[in-house]
Design a protein that fits this description.
Elements lengths: L4 E3 L8 E5 L2 E5 L9 E5 L2 H9 L6 H17 L6 H16 L7 H17 L6 H35 L6 E5 L14 H10 L3 E7 L6 H12 L4 E4 L4 H7 L4 E4 L3 E3 L4 E4 L2 H11 L3 E4 L5 E2 L16 H4 E2 L2 E2 L12 E4 L7 E4 L2 E3 L1 H11 L2
Parallel strand pairs: 5-6, 5-8, 6-7, 8-11, 9-12, 11-16
Antiparallel strand pairs: 1-4, 2-3, 3-4, 9-10, 10-15, 13-14, 16-17
This protein binds 5-S-methyl-1-O-phosphono-5-thio-D-ribulose.
């Protein structure tokens, strides 16, 4: 990893800084909320490490940073033939996908780039330089498009729940799905931001999200930055929260939604969906089409990343458990489609899980 660090004085929620071709910095999310430090990404190897070590995390942000790390890399490379460029891309993209494979977004970006590469390779009018330029432009476009998509999903999600409620709402969310997890604005947190901007958010609740604490470190940070009225709860307080306070809706992100609507998301999502069903709270998943994988039929096919035991046994480097205890640390779980009672919010609208496959296939034609 390139060791040039920029300490940004202003507190920021911009996870990705890319203002100029070849210049990529990411906010080191391992250091939040105490330090705001941006790390320079100089090539694909830096991108892979930043994703693997979770300096950047969140499904859409993983895809965007991986793709931009490829642009930075390509910017310093020359290729004699289109075939050589195509082979280089395939190798680098396969490597980037391997960093954190449960989230489908990096694979989605890789598929888009490889399809374009294959088309350009076979097109006689396109030179190697033009091919490289078009691939870099496509990879760069993912960042801006993601922000646009998030704003659309924010409106769709907010309007959908407001159609069923005439008062201001209490919303619960889990993990971090905001600016830090995306190109900007956020998916589920984008819906919360939209409700807040409309003056229709009474209160947001966010969970701590053990063991990595994306909720207490990152979502709480974003909520505070935006002055959104909010309360942090530990993960084991959600049943009591739903019993004692009216929660009007639960909005979460997704790492992979498959064709039948089953959804892999941060560990703890499934238990919230079960609680939501019991307490009759509408449960929404907010997922751009880059998080939707119509090639898998059910959630049983999703391979769940397992992370090191030290995330459970240690906090801030200090052991908080007895030595030798066995730990199980899956990063994600799968929520069955039938528990997604509010709907799946996409950039094309809000769908029931059973509508998703047909609707998405139609919109993506
Ligand atoms: O392990 P993480 O922090 O990458 O997990 C992130 C999540 O599970 C998010 O909820 C998901 O990526 C949706 S992000 C908009």
């Amino acid at each position: 990893m390139n060791k040039i660090y920029e300490i940004i004085k202003k507190m920021g929620t911009e996870a990705i800084i890319y203002n100029q071709r070849g210049q990529l910095s990411i906010l080191d999310q391992l250091l939040l909320p105490n330090q705001t430090v941006y790390v320079r990404i100089g090539d694909v190897e830096d991108g892979w490490k930043a994703i693997f070590q979770m300096q950047v995390r969140g499904a859409p942000a993983i895809g965007i940073v991986g793709s931009l790390s490829l642009v930075v890399d390509l910017n310093n490379q020359e290729f004699d033939t289109k075939s050589m460029l195509n082979t280089y891309l395939a190798t680098k993209l396969t490597y980037l996908v391997s960093a954190r494979p449960t989230a489908v977004n990096m694979k989605w970006c890789a598929d888009v780039l490889l399809k374009l590469s294959a088309e350009l390779k076979d097109c006689d009018e396109v030179s190697v330089a033009e091919m490289k330029e078009q691939i870099m432009s496509m990879a760069e476009s993912f960042l801006e498009k993601d922000i646009e998509i998030n704003k659309k999903m924010g409106m769709f999600g907010a309007n959908h729940i407001l159609e069923r409620n005439d008062k201001s709402l209490r919303i619960l969310t889990h993990c971090n799905t905001g600016s830090l997890a995306t190109g900007g604005y956020g998916t589920a947190l984008g819906v919360i931001r939209t409700l807040h901007n409309m003056g229709r958010l009474l209160h947001a609740y966010c969970t701590e999200t053990r063991p990595y604490n994306q909720g207490s470190r990152l979502t709480a940070y974003e909520l505070m930055q935006d002055d959104i009225p909010s309360t942090l709860v530990c993960d084991n307080m959600c049943a009591a929260l739903m019993k004692n306070w009216t929660i009007d809706g639960i909005f979460l992100g997704a790492d992979r939604v498959v064709a039948n609507g089953d959804t892999a998301n941060k560990i703890g999502t499934y238990q919230l969906a079960v609680l939501a069903k019991y307490h009759n709270v509408p449960f929404y998943v907010v997922a751009p089409s880059s998080s939707i994988d119509l090639n898998m039929s059910t959630g049983d096919e999703i391979v769940i990343e397992e992370r090191p035991a030290t995330e459970i046994t240690h906090m801030n480097g200090i052991r908080v458990t007895p030595k030798g205890i066995n730990c199980w640390n899956p990063a994600f779980d799968v929520t069955p489609a039938r528990l997604i009672t509010g709907g799946i919010v996409t950039e094309f609208g809000v769908f029931t899980p059973s509508e998703l496959n047909t609707e998405l296939s139609t919109h993506l034609k």
